[in-house]
Amino acid sequence: MKIECRNLKKNYKAKEVLQGVNLTLEKGKIYGLIGRNGAGKTMLLSILSAQNPVSSGQLLLDGEPIWENAEALSHIYFAREIITSANSNSGGLKVKEYLNMAASYLPHWDKEMAERLVKLFHLEPKQRLIKLSKGMVSMLGAVTALASKADFTFLDEPVSGLDVVAREQFYQLLLEEFTETGRTFVISTHIIEEAADIFEEVIFLHHGKIILKENTQELLEETVYVSGRAETVDAVIQGKEIYKPKTLGRSKSVLVRLQEGEILNQKEGITIQPVNLQKIFVSLCREEENV
Ligand SMILES: Nc1ncnc2c1ncn2[C@@H]1O[C@H](COP(=O)(O)OP(=O)(O)OP(=O)(O)O)[C@@H](O)[C@H]1O
Description:
By secondary structure, the protein is of the alpha/beta class. 33% of the residues lie in helices and 31% in strands.
């Protein structure tokens, strides 16, 4: 099973929110969707789940269009941010009512799992959503996403507002569910490092374009930070794929993307260090923005 997007574009008046996204999401993977504020993450997830029409391009599940296709949509669920303000549709609902509503439109809903997770997260079924704390609202979203049992489940910043204990608990549950079922999860988050071990692949979205989609482990193993005397750094990185160098006086630092099996020669006057995902993301954004 796979979802494919071909040259997806979304415009709002003159603004191109998605600028030709090509993406394949395979069954049985956890993807991390990373992007700056306004990059288009929520938009992409809402389009992938057919909650929003595209301006152009194709969106397919196993070769069949997803838009207005009930069978395809029964395999996809997007747990978007729950709006609980007084004038929203959800705000006045009780936790129990919100979950009953989800159960009514999600064809593979696991009632027993939802009840178990509600207890685990100490959510009170009779409490109205408007009275929940920000973290509790996030937990309710996580419960809905997990209990949806959709083959492709998208979560928009599921851990925002959760305390560290609850965040670990959420990722643990997610991994257990993933291991048991082989469902696909796409998770957007700004807390990159914490989730880096969970994501099999990372997708970096920048100004409505995918600037990187890679296996997380390979990306980390094959990217190094080189710093030291500028002329030595230049000699070592010659002919290599690099991300946005920084020069300060006579010293220089740069991220180098190695090819499989490629190594850098250690020379006096430079250091070669491993990097984390956050650093790679920041460097790539700087590269794109040319700053
Ligand atoms: N209904 C709309 N009308 C016009 N522009 C919109 C609409 N919805 C989203 N946008 C624009 O689309 C762009 C992408 O928004 P989106 O919410 O997808 O970003 P995001 O990556 O999820 O950001 P964040 O991390 O801040 O949540 C933004 O520039 C936003 O202003």
